[in-house]
């Protein structure tokens, strides 16, 4: 009886086995790379959270700021809570220990309002603490007050509108011109200190919108001569 010949694996089949092994190795290598990348992301996330918890946040642009500015922004992003927390916002922006001697706490409270608006929160400064009477250049204390807003403004990307208002008592210019010049002086100073100019818009209303009393009637008031800095932090309905 003849012996059965031993089957020999053709060279092509050997090549296919080698190619299959190579593809398996490559697939394993890519899976390993993907796993390592996921581990790196997890580690970076933990480091960022730990940094924030310590009270230091990366400032958009460069450097770092204290978590106090982030807290102010959080309050400003909830306009519906401003009535209850406007004094808290004032105290965070201008603590007693940083106010210069020429600005008392009571004077600041009388000449600064924090108001809820439809599209955000407005910081309203009268001309008494920003400008010389009838002038449109920021005074030294006006520059001080505006400079204290910059760290908070750099912690949000919210658009900012600067609006000027005045009345007929400032007779050096027409009300419209003076209100525009004052708003522009505030805007230019904030841009000079590092707030991106692309975020700003400018409005001038002259004497068109005076302060009103409880009955809704216009009254003569220092608050007719004011600059409103509106941070448009309110998100549209359905927005993120």
Please tell me about this protein's structure:
The protein has 240 residues and is α+β, with helices and mostly antiparallel strands. The chain is 42% helix and 15% strand. It is built from 7 helices and 7 strands, in the order H-E-E-H-H-H-E-E-H-H-E-H-E-E. The chain has a 5-stranded mixed sheet with strand order 3-4-7-5-6. Strands 1-2 form a two-stranded antiparallel ribbon. A hairpin with a 2-residue loop joins strand 3 and strand 4. It is elongated. About 11% of the residues have low confidence.
Task: Describe the global form.
Answer: elongated
Biggest β-sheet strands, sense, barrel = 5 strands, mixed
Proportion in helices: 40-55%
Using only C-alpha atoms, the radius of gyration works out to 31 Å
User: Which regions are unreliable across 5 or more consecutive residues at pLDDT < 50?
Assistant: 38-63
**Average pLDDT level:** 77
Task: Specify the structural class.
Answer: alpha+beta
Q: How far apart lie the N and C ends?
A: 86 Å
Order of helices and strands: HEEHHHEEHHEHEE
Number of helices: 7
Determine the strand fraction and express it as a percent band.
15-25%
Number of strands: 7
Describe the strand arrangement of the main beta sheet, using strand numbers. 3-4-7-5-6
